[in-house]
Write a structure and sequence with these properties.
Radius of gyration: 23 Å
Number of strands: 10
Helix content: 25-40%
Low-confidence stretches: none
Distance between the termini: 20 Å
Structural class: alpha+beta
Strand content: 15-25%
Strand order of the largest sheet: 8-1-2-10-9
Pfam family, one: REP_ORF2-G2P
Number of domains: 2
Protein name: Replication-associated protein ORF2/G2P domain-containing protein
């Protein structure tokens, strides 16, 4: 049973003595005296229905004391930090797409393409809505979709779905929406790829989620700053996040805590990312990869 299942108790996450700094060995910038801005490493864990788990440990600051007056916010579209805000929006959308893909257990990638060089985003979205509306009459369709803009400006849709699909049905509906060309040719195509043929392996659904999420942070000439970056079906419920403040002040302790929490769900095939400068550790485990006797790799 993990620390999160036992309760939010940092003492239950066993760290080696090397990662538990003494008071006199804390970094010079570290502040945790209970007054003003306080430094702490915070661990978060989110477990998905198919057994996937995401664990992150981040260095954060929280304020202890009287609340300060909030700064007035600029009106939508009038901020002086529009580019910076756009980057933040891209990172949030990327995270949301990854989470939604894992929530629906997405393990297949459907790509809707055009025969012609489609560069009109509004028209492409009309086609997408018509496709979802018609498909919804035949089956329940849970999806997470993003638009990719190629270097030449052509648009197409990447759609993450769960389980085997009726490829003939998908292709016929998409082609019906787009209609025929001047010579009677089909104006669209549908390709479906599963993790086995996509290089992700049998337990690679968590990698597929990261793959499709990357398109949210790409710049698109056809998208304004305030336009949506992704689309999802109704009824996608994200699991709750468990969080806990750790009793460590070093990145070594943060990394070991992240592995200690994640190893209950299996470390085989995991994805990980660490940035010492930002004070961030992130681990994503594969679906159903629990180990009977997990061991931290260090």
């Amino acid at each position: 049973m993990s620390a999160f299942h036992r309760g939010l108790d940092a003492e239950s996450i066993h760290l080696s003595p090397l990662s538990l700094d003494l008071v006199e060995e804390k970094p010079s910038y570290w502040s945790d005296d209970g007054h003003g801005w306080q430094d702490a490493f915070v661990a978060r864990r989110r477990v998905f229905p198919d057994g996937q788990c995401e664990v992150s440990v981040t260095k954060e600051r929280h304020f202890v004391g009287a609340a300060s007056q909030p700064k007035p916010r600029a009106k939508r579209g009038e901020s002086e930090k529009r580019e910076e805000n756009d980057d933040d929006a891209g990172r949030r959308a990327k995270k949301n797409v990854r989470m939604c893909c894992k929530a629906i257990g997405a393990d297949r990638l459907v790509t809707l393409t055009y025969r012609e060089n489609m560069i009109d985003r509004d028209q492409a979205l009309k086609h997408w809505k018509a496709f979802c509306r018609r498909l919804g009459k035949h089956k329940q369709f849970h999806y997470v979709a993003v638009i990719e803009e190629q270097a030449r400006g052509a648009l197409h849709f990447h759609v993450a779905v769960h389980g085997r699909q009726n490829y003939v049905l998908l292709r016929s509906i998409w082609q019906r929406v787009l209609g025929l060309g001047p010579k009677g040719e089909q104006m669209g195509q549908v390709n479906v790829r599963d993790p086995h043929r996509f290089g992700f392996g049998v337990n690679g659904a968590h990698k597929l989620a990261s793959y499709i999420a990357k398109y949210c942070s790409k710049e698109m000439q056809c998208r304004a700053l305030d336009q949506k970056r992704y689309f999802r079906s109704r009824g996608v419920v994200l699991p709750e996040v468990d969080s806990i403040r750790l009793k460590c002040t070093s990145m070594l302790g943060a990394v070991q805590a992240a592995f200690t929490i994640a190893m209950e769900y299996g470390l085989e095939g995991m994805q990980s990312w660490c940035n010492n400068g930002l004070g961030v550790v992130w681990i994503s485990t594969s679906p159903g990869g629990r180990n009977s006797e997990p061991e931290c790799p260090f």
